[in-house]
Amino acid sequence: MNSKKTKIAKLYWKKNLQYLFILLSIWAITSFGASILWKEWLDQFYFYGFPVGFWFAQQGSIYIFVILIFIYVRLMNKLDDTIDEEFNKSINTK
Asked: What are the residues whose beta carbons fall under 8 Å from the beta carbon of 79, sequence distance 6 or more?
């Protein structure tokens, strides 16, 4: 693998880790924060007849995680397209 391809691969991995860190941080904050830290404050609001703090503890964090999976797939598809273009450019410039 030439130097340009190595740089592209490292950039791809760096961006992938960045996406993972951001999305998992969002999930950790919503699941831990909403169901434990801010539970009492959120319990004053109701969602389908249940206090919001309880709802997040039971279901909300799972829904957030599934939504974040779809966001991750979309981000990675875009990144794959971008990286494919860069690889093709590096191959054609030989």
From this structure: 12, 15, 16, 19
**Nearest alpha-carbon partner for 72 in 27, 11, 8:** 27
d(CA 54, CA 34): 9
For residue 1, count CB atoms less than 10 angstroms from its CB and return exposed for 0-12, middle for 13-18, buried for 19 or more: exposed
Q: Which residue has the tokens 């974040």?
A: 68
52-88 confidence digits (pLDDT tens): 888 877 788 888 999 999 999 999 999 999 988 877 7
- Above 60 in pLDDT, residue 94? no
Ordered by start, the domain boundaries in the chain are 3-92
Q: How many CB atoms lie within 10 A of CB 81?
A: 10
